[in-house]
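Quality-control log, excerpt.
Job 1 of 2 completed; input and output follow.
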Amino acid sequence: MSVLTICFGTCGIRFTHSLYSTIFSDNNASDPIVTQHVNQEYKHTSESCFFELRSNGYLEPRSILIDIGDPNIGDILKKSKNCNWGFGQNSLGFNFIEGSTNNWSYCYYVKGPEMFEDVSSRLRFEMNKIDKIEYFLIILSPSGGCAGSACFILEKLKQDFPKISFIVVLIMPYQSKDAIQNYNTSFTISKLYSISDSIFLFENSVLQEVCQAGRSEVKVSFDDLNQIGCKQLISIFQPIEHQTFPYFLSVVHDQKYKILSLISSPNYRREYSSYESTPRWEAIVNQTIRLLNASHCGVSFGNFIVYRGDTSNYVDKLNFSEKLNSLSFSKHILEEHKFSQMFQQRHFMGSKYLSVLSNNSTNVSALNSVIKLAKRAFSHKAFVHHYNQYNTNINDFKNVFSNVNQIIKDYYELD
C-alpha cells in the first residue's frame, strides 16, 4: 500500500519537505532495543509506503508539489541534495504568476483550471508506478491564494478518483485581523470539508508554544514549527504493531466530525535533542496528560494513544482515563473507542515518544475565531471587490460563512 502526497503553496512545500526528511531520519535511526530484523522491516514498510526506490538506491517521495507564488521555492528542495533522498523532476509542478497570488477567487477560477491538466498528468504518471493507491495525503495552508487553486484541483480529482480517500493536513497561520487571510481560510475550509475523509489541523500559534516550552524569549522560526508539526504527524503515520496505515481514520466515526488534533511528548527542538536525557514513561505520560487537561474542555469523539519505545511491563499501570479530568465523551461512541492504545516497541527518532490523536469539539476553536473575523470584515465589505472580479459574489461569501458555521455548530452541539 502506498500513499501519494499532493502539496500546495510555499507553506505546504516547506512542511512536506520537513515531513519526508523526518521519515527518512526516523527510518535510518537504527534502534538497538529491537532486533535488526525489526529495524529493517520497519524501514521497508515505511519506505514502500512513502517513497519510490530507484535502481541506484536513491529514494524519491511519492509526491506532487504545486506552487504559484515563489520562484525561489527550488532552494528549499535543494536542501536534501546531499542525502540519499530527494524530489523527482515529475514532482515539481510550478506555475508562477505576478500579482493576485493571494486572491483565492482568481486562483480558484483562473489558475486552477489552467494548472489542472498538468497536475493531473503528473499525478497519473506517479500512480502508474504504484500497484495500488488508496489515499492522497494533501498538505497546504488554507490562508493563501494558492489554496484556491488547490480547492479547484482537488474537487476535480475527487470526481476522477471517487474511491481514493483524501487525508488533508491544514497548517493554520497565526491569528490575524487580515481580512484576506480569513476570507481565504473560510473559502478553503468550506470547499475541502465536503471532499475530505479527515483533516489534521496544525496551528502555528500552538506549535510555537510547544517550541518555546514556556520560555517566551526563545526565538522560533517556521522551520522549527514545521519540525515539531511533522514529528507529531509522522509519529502517527509511521508503522505500528498490528496496525496498517491509515488506522487512524477509524476515529472519524461520522463525516460531520473529521477534524483531528495532535498532542505529543517529549518535543525537543532538533539542536537541543542531543543534550536531553531520555525521560521515563511515567514522566512522558504525565506531561502529555497535563497538556491534554490544559487544552481539552470539550466533548470527545475518540482518541488514539500511540506509544513508541519499549513499554514492556509498564504501560498497563498508566491509565489515561483515570488521570484526565477535563474530557467528556459523546454518548454516541462505544467505550472501546474512547481511548485506543497502539504500540511500537521501536524507538521514534531514537527516543521514547507518546502521541495522542484526538477528535473533539475544541478542534474547531481556531475556525470559530477565523469565521468571526471574516464576517466582521465582510460586514464592512473589506476587500470584497477583489473577489467580485473573479466570479465570487455576495451570496458566495454568505454560503461559505454558513457552511463553516455549520461545521462549528455540529461540533459544539456534540453530546
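Job 2 of 2 completed; input and output follow.
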Amino acid sequence: MILVFAVPSNSPLCKIISSIKILHLVSLSSSLNSSLFSPAIQQLKMLASKGALVPDSRVMRTLFSPCNISHISVASFGRKSSLKAYSAKMELSITRPDDWHLHLRDGDVLKTVVSHSAHHFGRAIVMPNLKPPITTTAAAVAYREAILKSLPADSDFNPLMTLYLTDTTSPMEIKLARESQVVFGVKLYPAGATTNSQDGVIDLFGKCLPVLQELVEHDMPLLVHGEVTNPEVDMFDREKVFIETVLSPLVQKFPRLKVVMEHVTTMDAVKFVESCTEGFVAATVTPQHLVLNRNSLFQGGLQPHNYCLPVLKREIHREALVSAVTSGSRRFFLGTDSAPHDRRRKECSCGCAGIYNAPVALSVYAKVFEKPGALKLPLCAGFGEGPDHKGLLKMHSTSSKHLLASMDQTFMGFLGTIQRLS
C-alpha cells in the first residue's frame, strides 16, 4: 500500500489529487493495474523511495473497481522536515461542477458509491439502466428518493433523473416526465449496446416516432448511446456507423430536437457535433476517453478495468477529444460515465463493461487541461456548459472547497470552466 499526503508543488500529481480534503489522504493500492492512474503510481513510488511519506495505516477501501481509493484519517506523520518541502498548498473555494452522465446503480452498490459523486459534484444526470429499467416517471421519482436516502446526512447533492426509452414508451409518459420537475431527459439505448440495454430501442424511426415528436414539443433532450449493435460492424467502428445510419438521419428529421451524444469517443463524433446547429446537438466526454487509448486495454496483459463501452479508440481519436474539450466550444461538456461494478464481475472470464471513476474523475479532467498550451481561451469557455444545453438552471453554490497544491495557470483555467456554471 502506497499512501501520499504531501507532494512537490510543481508535480503533475498535485493536480491528480487536487480534490482531496485537507485532513484526508488518498490511498492507491499497489495492485492497481489501470493505466489511467499509472503516472500517479510512479510518482508515489518515487516519493516513497525518498522517505518523505510516513502516514498512519488505517484504511477503509471501496469495494468497487477500477480504483481502490478511500479517505484515510491522518493520525501521525514522520520525517516532518521532509514534509515541509513537499507541502506548498492552498485552499480555494470554487463552484461545484455537475456530472452530466452518471451511473449510481441501486441497492448496496448505490449506498456505497453515491457519496463519492456527491463529494465532488452538485448535481448529476443519473442513468436509468437498472434491472428493471426506469421506464416511467413514477419509477424515476422512486429511484430519486432511494438516492436521496443513501446520501450522507449533510449532503445537498441533487440527482436529476432520466427515463429509459423503449419501443413501447408513450407520448403521455414524456408529458408526465416534464411535469414532474424530476425527470430531465430520456435515454436512448440501442437494444444490446451496453450494460442492461437489452430492453432498449429496436424501432427508433417507427414505434418511437411519436415519442420523439413529444420530446421536441416539451423541449426535453434525448440522451443517446451512439453505437450500432449489428454484429457485422467492427467494434471500433460502431460509433461512426451509428452517426451515419441513425444520428444524422435523426437530426435531419427532427432539427429542433435537443440531442446529447453521450460519452463520445471518436474524431467522427467530434466532427459531427461541430457540424450541427449549436444548441441542439452536444456531447459529453469521459475522463477515461481523454487519457486512454485502446492500447490501454492490452498493455501488460488484458486490462479489464480499462474496458468500457463505447470501447477505447485509437490515439488519433483521443487527441481529437482533447482538442474538442479544450477548444472553447460550448458543445462538449463533462460527463464521467462513472459505472461501478463488483470487482468479481470485472475480473472474470466474461467481464462487464464500465469504469468506476467517481472518486478521481475531476482530478483526471484537470490533468488533461494541465498539458502545455491546452488553454488558449479565457476560462476554456465550453467545457461545463451542460446546464445551457439541457435547459437547467445553472449552479449558484460556491460551498465546495478543494485542496490545491499550486497556482498553475493551466489548472486555474480548468477551474474557471467550472466557475462558468455560476
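Post-run check on job 2. The longest helix spans residues 238-253.
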